[in-house]
Amino acid sequence: MTASVDDREIVVALPKGRILHEVMPLVRRAGIEPEPEFDDPDSRRLVFDTNVPGLKLVRVRSFDVATFVAFGAAQLGVAGNDVLMEFDYPEIYAPLDLRVGKCHMAVAEPAELMQTDDPARWSHVRVATKYPEITRRHFARRGVQAECINLSGAMELAPSLGLCRRIVDLVSTGDTLRANGLVEVERIADISSRLVVNRAALKTRSTVLGAWVERFREAVDAVAA
Predict the structure, then answer these.
(1) Structural domains in the chain, sorted by start
(2) In tens digits, what is the pLDDT along the chain, a chain of 225 residues?
(3) Going by C-beta distance under 8 Å and a sequence separation of 6 or more, which residues neighbour residue 108?
(4) What stretches of the chain adopt beta strand conformation (E)?
(5) What's the predicted TM-score (pTM) here?
(6) Cβ pair 86, 149 in contact under 8 A
(7) Is-contact 59 179, C-beta < 8 A?
(8) Contacts of 182 by beta carbon, 8 Å cutoff, 6+ apart
(9) Which helix (H) or strand (E) holds 69?
């Protein structure tokens, strides 16, 4: 039977993929155990019951977590601060760094270009990225005009195929950059995943949502100890 949600329930939006695997130990330490099908990689369901009455988990794309929380479809969620910086929803409160999903956002370009390139002399750049707002703000602070080409993935291909000479993307180990002949030239921001809360829901349901924020905080502190 497919789970459904209603206005009286608490919905926690979690990102699919790598971050989900990193954050689930914290979710479980906070006292939330999803139904068995949640751990089935072949399941196509998106909404799952938990051991906590009235609390459900939903799995969505990492970029969509912030939207679900901002518009009140979920009261709590886990989102990278890259997503929060890109969308900058005023409806979202991010009280807790979960200390998972750590990486950083950077500007990268072909290694051979870096040999003669001077970022201090840039006045206009064309950049492939899925973070156009962050990219424009970053370069605007330096007085550089950024023309952004929106890509949802495979950013590293853009320079080699002549789409542009530079990219802005998340960097973890740097292996993907090196494998595609790219080098990091500017670091924009450190990234990690945050617990996020819908501000309106926090005002109207402060006791219950505040208690969940504290349970996650205790879980993070216990892992760090």
Answers:
(1) 10-101+192-224 (3.40.190.10), 103-190 (3.40.190.10)
(2) 344 445 579 999 999 999 999 999 999 999 999 999 999 988 999 999 999 999 999 999 999 999 999 999 999 999 999 999 999 999 999 999 999 999 999 999 999 998 888 888 899 999 999 999 999 999 999 999 999 999 998 999 999 999 999 999 999 999 999 999 999 999 999 999 999 999 999 999 999 999 999 999 999 999 987
(3) 156, 166, 167, 168, 169, 171, 177, 182, 183, 184, 185
(4) 10-15, 47-49, 55-60, 76-80, 92-97, 103-110, 124-129, 145-150, 166-171, 182-191, 193-198
(5) 0.91
(6) no
(7) no
(8) 108, 109, 110, 111, 156, 159, 167
(9) helix 62-70
Place of tokens 């089935």: 40
Element housing 84 (H / E): helix 81-87
Name, in order, each residue with C-beta under 8 angstroms of 119's C-beta and a sequence gap of 6 or more: 107, 185, 186
Rg of the chain (C-alpha set): 20
* CA distance linking residue 76 with residue 73, whole number of Å: 9
- Give the Å distances, CA to CA, from 173 to 97, 113, 129, 216: 21, 21, 18, 27
Torsion angles phi and psi, residue 206, rounded to 5: -60, -35
User: With contact defined as beta carbons under 8 Å apart, do 202 and 209 qualify?
Assistant: yes
Separation of alpha carbons 37 and 52, rounded Å: 16
Secondary element (H or E) of residue 223: helix 206-224
How far is the C-alpha of 149 from the C-alpha of 129, rounded, in Å?
6
Q: Within a 10 A sphere around the Cβ of 146, how many other Cβ atoms?
A: 21
